[in-house]
Design brief:
alpha+beta, nine-stranded mixed beta sheet, eight-stranded mixed beta sheet
Length: about 850
Amino acid sequence: MHRDPPPSRDKTEANVSEITPPEFPAHPLWPGLLPWQHLLCAWILGMLAWEWPVPGTTALLLYLTALLCSWSRPPGTTRPHLPPPDPSAFSPGRQPPWWKNIRTAAPPLLAFALGVATVHLLHPVPPPADLPEINHRKPTTITAHVDEVRPRPGDHFQIILRDVRIHPTENSSETTPRALGGKLLWNWQSPPDVPSPGREVRVALRIRPIQGMANPGMNRSEDYWARQGIFHRAYSREANTAPVYSGAAGPAWEYRRQLREKLISSTPAGQGQAMLLALLMGDRSLLAPETMDLVQRASLAHSLALSGMHLGFVVGLGWLGATVLGWVRPQIYLRLPRPKLAVLLSVPLVLGYLWLGQAVPSLLRAALMFGSWGLLLLLNRQRVLLDGLFLALLIILALSPLAVFDLRLQLSALAVAGLALVWPLGREALRFTQRPWWQKPLAAGLGILAVSTVATLALLPLQAWYFGRISPHLYLNMLWLPLLGLAVFPLGLTGLLALLTPWTAPMAPPLLSLAGGILETMVGGLAALDQAGWLKASIALRPLWPQILGYWMLLLAVAAWWRSPQSLRPATVFLAVALLVLPGLTTILSNQRSQITLRLLDVSQGQAVLLELPGGSRWLVDGGGFWSWDYDLGRNIITPTLTHGRPPRLTGIALSHAHFDHYRGLFYPLDHFRVRKFASQGRGPEGRDGSILHETLNRRAIPETVWSKGDVIDLGKGVVLEVLHPDTDWLTADNQNDASLVLRLVWHDRPLALLPGDIEQPSIAALLQSLTDAPDALRAEALIIPHHGSRTSHSPQLYAQIRPDIAVVSTGFLNRFNHPHPEINQTLKDMSVPLLNTAKHGAVTIRWTGPNAPPRVTSERGGRINLGKEKK
């Protein structure tokens, strides 16, 4: 047989160029992505860059650098299916010409630009606010169709309404209903009857535009809802709303509702029942918020979100069925191997579970991923996990490009990508099926722990950024997930199937009760661990975007080293470590600068002021808070804002007075931050709130200090807080507002800001009277308007004494008190003092970069504020 001679080195080099497209050379940091997969990555980065332009563009540049650097791969690193390269081909004189670099970079750059354009064209635009029929203080009658119902913990339902038509009021000249524009989010607490999708509803609701709180380093709720085409919301509680429905519920919804009622009647009441309903049907309405918090702190929150893990349990039943068939008829494997048979048997199970879970987006996307993996498996593809992920992402984002911003999709994709990159470890972990029977339980537990650890490592930056806390209790997955997959799911799904026919229905209650009982015991075990103090979650430093990129670069480098140690590049590791470390060093250097920052946080109808002082000292004066315990402002707003790029530490916390809109947001940071001291005027909250505050201070050993009129608090580096009010007489005032601390921030005898709490006209008059001999004692460049701009605190004489260059006020969006009062706006306008309102501008930051430097003012919604132009 004639054989061709071995190619020469020159021919080898030519063959390498012919076999591998020069546009997308292989790179050791990823396992040989295909050209379309590179383009998909660049397209995704472009879409993300629409919202985060600097991080997205930087990620693209790093990506392109990695692609271009693959031309200069060191000798000895070979690509699969290619002959070894000639070492001389990688010498400095043999670098690829510039036009090849352009050819390599051009397609990803075009895909990146296409991603930016995609979001720009598809992102919903808010409708014009020209509907006089809407009054957020009065009910507006609407007619709409129920588009979607989302059960939430605590018997709370989010009802999405589409085709919303506003009926004209009695005094309106309009005679026909007008379109609202976009969908309406209707939050209904404890509804007596949950409407079904597709039905028409006529109801009177208080409708208002969606606008969340805008603080540094935080996402905004209006952006989240806008991507779903929702721009307005309404809220109702229990039976105080009387909607009128027309049209019949769809047969699928009605049958699912009956199945839900049968499941509830077949199981004993409790959190085990609630968890079973959440796992099988995606309905969390019976779950208590305390149970959700317990599960989250135990690193088990992923077990309650309908996602790929739950479909994995369902597919596991298909694998079990394939195994049983193999025992009965072994010859079936000759025609259809067990993996392919498991895929085919899983299809109806997956479709049924999709129906049970109402095909919520997270479950539907997980089904697309499993479908992609199953298809590639049936086609005998070798790299099923990674290629299936890319195929699923392509389908998902082609159908709904804005899903790229969905946190659930981001977490799922990153978890699967992490597993794909370290698949050798995962393959070793899953070989427990080949072990002796007595070793399988331990091997299975270790395998689950290994897979959970890998997925958690891949998700760590996003978890820290989005959730602000890290739970170290991954080990609980070793027991929790096997119980779900091997006991709860088989029992629960079998019980639901038994409910479908009258002949098997008597079998359902024992099965469902056993599944619910197991879950009740599991929740009780978590509660016992929590009582013993073993479920503490750590408040994490929320990373800055360079640290997120650096972490993932380092993870990719480690994965590349795991596959091929000689592929590790010191330059990549150095750059990754630099991205991880430099932001922290920058923060440390910034702390040493001679500058002071006052930030009035956006906490809705409340007040919270953060002072950042030379040397890194930070003081929090008040923390906001709501009258209801349903929303923890300290956990959800104060803590994430304070930990963005900084550790959870505060030099001190000061409470101006004991009203819940100033102190309830302090409970969480007091319990989880390292706080050196707590200060107040000595009159704290009473009742339950007072017990919580004192118990937390005692347990955390935080010393308490009482400030009173005449005290000068030395904050270091020439910075002091002058306490101007109250004295002991005012502490006994009937009105807590009149007992508020009034603090003046002074830096080297330069009065920077006045923080007057919620003082009202009686205490304002007393304050002015006591300072008649010192007319400049109230002078300050920045004034926080007292009592959120209430008319009861309006005092032109006070403003005249302060003579501020800028005034800021903390109010809630469309608050029912109409704060700030128009008289205050007019008085400040007459004085040529600009007024910034957190409800309009978001968090306001005032920074003095030196003892003699003018203040620089920025806001989250308005950017840089030019005081000179404002005053003109």
